[in-house]
UniProtKB/TrEMBL annotation:
Phylogenetic placement of the source organism: Bacteria, Pseudomonadati, Pseudomonadota, Alphaproteobacteria, Sphingomonadales
Enzyme class: ligase
Subunit structure: Homodimer.
Protein name stated in the entry: Tyrosine--tRNA ligase
Organism listed in the record: Novosphingobium pituita
Record's catalysed reaction(s): tRNA(Tyr) + L-tyrosine + ATP = L-tyrosyl-tRNA(Tyr) + AMP + diphosphate + H(+)
Amino acid sequence: MLGDPLHFEAIMTEYKSDLLRLLSERGHIHQLTDAQGLDALANREIVVGYNGYDATAPSLHVGNLASVMLLRRLQQAGHKPIALMGGGTTKIGDPSGKDTSRQMLTEELIASNIAGIRKVFERLLTFDDSASGAVMVNNDDWLSKLGYIEMLRTVGPHFTVNRMLTFDSVKLRLDREQPLTFLEFNYMILQAYDFRELALRHGCRLQFGGSDQWGNIVNGIELTRRMNGIELFGATTPLLTTADGAKMGKSVNGAVWLNEEMLPNYDFWQFWRNTDDRDVGRFLRIFTDVPLDEITRLEALEGSEINAAKEVLANEVTALIRGPEAAEAAKATAQATFAGGGLGQDLPTHEVAEGTIGVIDALLALGFAASRGEAKRLIAGGGARLDGEPLRDEAAVITVAQERRLSSGKKKHGILKPA
């Protein structure tokens, strides 16, 4: 039976391998199942490591980016990353951090989502036939072929319900008296099986994940050791929150998507430009390839000078995820909008077909409010501005005979233009 989680080791002060040194210096390590063993392995051979992503949307979001950067660091250190797409597990649903059951998706939609997610990996990883070339794998290739009785007989004996009930993902739902389906209850078993399958098929020895995945990673390590006698390793990255305690990756209007079709380049750039002063150095280490000595210089800037470091962060992350041209265009838009008082060409835009539009409808169309009530509160609080002038009347109608700039607060701007 799978027992208690492996005791994780404190981070060593000195590592011998380039891999763990790089991960440690960049602030990626939270827990390691066997720091000394993994360090020795990475120092003597190429390590194959993976992280898994369920295809619940056509794009990953900023909250996923720290784990994707782990795969990038793995390859930068000369090792081989596997991006595991959860074509099979997406059909089940990970209960971790969820209060309700996940919506069931069709196989066609899951395949479409995987195609969208791949775009980010193609920018951050090198896919080729070299020893360290990245590969993308879909767990539906083996999970969909598993027979139910076979699964129960071969894997079931290694899990106890007693142990499974102690997992935070399960306890949270039960404590809140939220339904947890038998379907979702099986998720942790399938994730453990994934690690074993990747070890057998691809020689994978390392699984990455967020700190909330620790128990699932340990399950995979123990299951593979018991069934096949293979030694595996796990590493988690810290749960990222901003300096004010907010969960990383969320904006006022929802998730900060990595794909351009889900979020305009300017909005993506501006998200990073608005980083809290206290987070700049940490985010530069985790989300960019800026040299560490330069990061030390940038994070030491004070007062208004820290804005230069925030621009570096915004430019570097946007260039990595969206491409250098997108970063340059977003920066130019910001300069035109804030410094010159003009209309940057990369701002979110809404075409007005009838020549006029209500201010509430305009705020909704540009994504500055998620509901009419939220738009009314923005107007009442003086946060809505048209061409720099406050809009106080929620019933106001905007005439759009030429391009107009609509703003939400001091940092969010959009363009209304005639159709």
